[in-house]
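Q: I have 280 residues here and want to know how they pack in 3D. Can you give me a structure?
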Amino acid sequence: MASALASSLQKQLARFRKHLAACRVSPAPDPVHDLRVAIRRLRAHFRAARLAAPGVGSIEAVAGLRLLMRRLSRFRDVQVQQGMLGPMVSGHPSLAVFLEHLKSMESSAGSWLARELASFPEAEVSGAVTAVLAALLKVDAGSAAEVRARRRLSGRFRRSHLRLLALRSGIDPADPGTIHRLRVAFKKYRYLAEPLAGMSGNQDPEALPRMHQLQGAMGDIQDLAVLLRDLRSWAARSENRRELDPLTRLLALRLGENISSFISAASEMDSFVFPFGHAK
C-alpha cells in the first residue's frame, strides 16, 4: 500500500510542476483550474502519507500550497463569472459594464498573481515530497506498520464519511452556504480517496466518477451563488440596478433549480465508503 501511494505521489508532483509551469506562462482559465486541482491532489497525498507512514511529520510546504490556492481561488472566481455572463450580454446590455468591471479585476489580480507564481518556492515542495517518499518506502507490505496504517485510514475515512452525512442532513435549500460547507468537506474526502480507493474494500469502479459528478454539481451551485452575490452587491451601487433585476431573478431561479437537483442526487453519498480492514 505504501509503495503504491509513493508511486502516486511522484506522479502528482510531476503534474503539479507541469501545471505550475503552464500557469506561469499564461494564467488562463484552464491552466488555473488545472493547477488548483493539482494542488488539492498533492495536499491529499500528503494527508494520506501521514496516515500511512508514522515517520511523516508536519509538512511545512503545505502552508505555501494552501496560500497559493487562496491566491488562485479569487482569480478563478472572476474568470468563471466572465465565462458565465458573457453569453448573456446580448439579452442584458447593462451587463457589459459589470463585465468590464470583472475584466479590470482580472487584469489587476493577474499582475500580482504572476509575481506569486514566479516566486513560489517549488523546490520546497519537491524536497517535502522526497522526504515523504523516504518515509513511505520504509513501510513494508504486510508488516505490522502497514496493518496499523490500514487501521488509521479506516478510522479517518469512517469519521470523514459520517461528517459528510451530518453536513448533508444540515442542508438548507435557502442557504447555499450549507452546501458549500458540505462541498469543502467532500472535496477533501474525494481527493483523499482517489489514490487509495483501489486498495480499499470498495471495488466499485464507478464510485470515483460519481463522486466527481456530485462534486461538480456542488461546484456549479457555489459558482452561481457567488456570482449572484457579487452581481447584487455591484448592482446595489450602480445606476443600472433596475435593469439588472430581471437577470438576478433569473439567476436566483436557476440557483434554486440546481439546489433541488443536487439534493435529489445527494443520497449517493451513502455508498462512498472506503474500508481498509485488510490488505489487497
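Q: Anything worth noting?
A: Residues 1-139 form a domain with the CHAD domain fold (CATH 1.40.20.10). The two ends are 8 Å apart (CA to CA).
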